[in-house]
Amino acid sequence: MNLKSKLLSGLKHKVFMPIVTVLLLLVVVGFTWLEVTKADVEFTHNGETETVVTRAQTVEALLEELEIQLGNDDYLSHELTTEITSDMSIEYKEAVEVVVNDDAQTTTYMTTADTVGEFLQEEAITLQSHDVLSVDEAAAIEDKLTLDINRAVKVTVTDGTNESEEVYTTEETVKDLLDEAAIELSELDRVEPSVDEAIKEDMAISVIRVEEVTDVVEEAVAFSTVRRNDSSITKGKEEVIEAGSNGLIEKRYTVVMENGKEVSRELESEEVKKEASQRIVAVGTKVIQQAPSRGTSSRKAVSGKTITMEATAYNWNCATCDGRGLTATGYNLKANPDGVIAVDPSVIPLGTRVYVEGYGYAVARDTGGAIKGNKIDLHMRSVSAARQFGRRTVKLTIVE
């Protein structure tokens, strides 16, 4: 190598070394700057925590670096302008959707609460003691979570004769409420309103306890009176041959009771336990003939009060009669058709012996719906005889 070459080689070496030194210095300075400006940040995202090494200067720059877009309802522990420092803890939580069905009203919320209880408190949703929430308040909040709130209403329940009771319920129908309260119904029981009725606030529900019972009643049957002519007894006198006795009939009723009170009664059957015994009265027909006194007529004189009457005639076998032939006093007209008249008892008492002009002696033994005041009805042996008599004015004398 010649001198010139040596000189050039030495010159190059002298120039290269300072350049290398400068470059190395820049590298050291740059590395040192990078190490000084970076920070270790504890970053919690939706409950998961990791350490992030960042050279971001602010929280907002860190989120951009992590490609996180902050929503309006999201939670961030620091302001976006907060400067990043080493060992800093930052929490970020994305808001999730919660749907609340509060009875008939549906509302959608965005929340970052951890539990259902925190969410309800955050949104000021208050539950009363009898309200029912579909999810436990300690349950964690999840995205698209649906909460159903069934609000309890107050109703009044009256079970039969028991005292009314106020009940808070979330059931939908009357039947559901009765099932919830373990109120059982028999086949005959009924409910007002009906079991299918929807529950409403302050509704009054009545359970009517219905039962059917059989009631057996014994009733007396009054005896009838039969009068028979007796020629051995003086006319105008009567004697009781048999006193008569009442009969007995047993009646069975089906009785419907509601809450212990009778509401209806229906006769199902009846049975005669004892037949009534007739009262038999002997009526005297014997006429005592008296010898006429000198200078007097052989016909007995009739004395007493005389009344002018409007008279008609009838027979027991008429079309409107009951066919039994018994008078209002029980006198048998079939057996004893003569000497019987129907009267108004307020004018002529029953049992009074009278003499009727054109008819003869008679006893007031019968009454009639049309016999009012000074009217009498004369019993004839036949219907034709009664028709022939027609209507006429007669003199009636009460026999003394």
Automatic annotation (TrEMBL):
Stretches that traverse the bilayer: 15-34
Keyword entries, A-Z: Membrane, Signal, Transmembrane, Transmembrane helix
MF terms in GO: hydrolase activity, hydrolyzing O-glycosyl compounds
Keyword Transmembrane helix in annotation: yes
Record flagged with keyword rRNA-binding: no
Residue ranges of every copy of the G5 domain listed in the record: 207-287
Gene Ontology biological process terms from the UniProt entry: peptidoglycan turnover
Domain of life per record: Bacteria
GO cellular component: outer membrane
Entries under InterPro entries matching the protein: 3D_dom, DUF348, G5_dom, Resuscitation_pf_RpfB, RlpA-like_sf
Alphabetized PANTHER family for the sequence: CELL WALL-BINDING PROTEIN YOCH, RESUSCITATION-PROMOTING FACTOR RPFB
Name assigned to this protein: G5 domain-containing protein
Species, as recorded: Halolactibacillus alkaliphilus
